Amino acid sequence: MPLIIVTGHPSSGKSTIVDRLAERFKEKGKEYQIIRDESYGGFDRKNYEFANKEKDLRSWIRSEVQQSLTKNKVIICDGLNYIKGYRYELFLAAKMSKTTYCVIQCSPSADTCHWLNEQKPESSRYSKELIDQLLMRYERPDTKFRWEKPLFEVKIGKAEKALPSEIDDDMMVDLEYPAPRFANIFDEEIVEWICNGTELTENQSTQTVPLAPTNFLHELDRSTQDVVTVILNAQRTAVRGQNLTIPGATDGANTIKFLKLRTLPELNRLRHQFVNISKKDPTTDKEKIITGFVDFLNCNLR
């Protein structure tokens, strides 16, 4: 169920890189599925000129990724994926599936994007104006964010051959990087990470909140309001230091020490805090609600 997100400029060789990577997974005997924007019904490059059509496309891709992650195969999401927040949403889907994950960024120059665009069939090309617009919109991956790593940057150029192995492409020299068919795609490193890397783990942001019973909020609101009413009435005749007994709570955990007069706004503020906390662990058991609220008040009334 691993997820690979591919991102890059328009006409940056993403699909060629994905096809090469898929071949390597096939050689390793790993099942894979490629999810591409071209698979979306009625897809056209011009969709990126209209916010509503682009939004529908992203929703479709996200839905396909989420559904496919339930299967035992490598999912490769091949698209522009140029919005940082959108990549984060896909990352959360991987977290919920507790699987390995990485990002591949294709990095050509603007001139190379236009050159690669001209190599495509005319029906598959972006307009020059649209490429320039998408280049301006692009939000580059940044490894300071946890959802952008591990990041494998594939440098793309026009050269119809691979870089000589003895040349370090990080050297401060002006290199013409290889075209997508010859670029270094870090296939061995990616396959190793996806197959044997550290799996993502769920945290509070991705854990599924249990479904609450239909009358949960009503019972919670009524029970906590009853406790507040008991306290307001009891403290009128109470002596400082006296224990106020709260009906309905578990014996032994049904008293609140009276230290000073409490106002309705103060008690309601604490009641709202308790209600918000209780939504994470819903129950309609009135005794549990009241006992929990009494304990909460004893910890917070000072």
TrEMBL record:
Keywords tagged on the record: ATP-binding, Nucleotide-binding
Residues spanning the signal sequence: none
InterPro entries referenced in this protein's UniProt entry, alphabetically: KTI12/PSTK, P-loop_NTPase
A Pfam family the protein falls into: KTI12
GO molecular-function term, one example from the UniProt record: ATP binding
Keyword Nucleotide-binding: yes
UniProt entry tagged with the keyword Cell membrane: no
SUPFAM superfamilies hit by this protein: P-loop containing nucleoside triphosphate hydrolases
Family of the protein in this entry: Belongs to the KTI12 family.
Name the record gives this protein: Protein KTI12 homolog
Origin species: Caenorhabditis latens
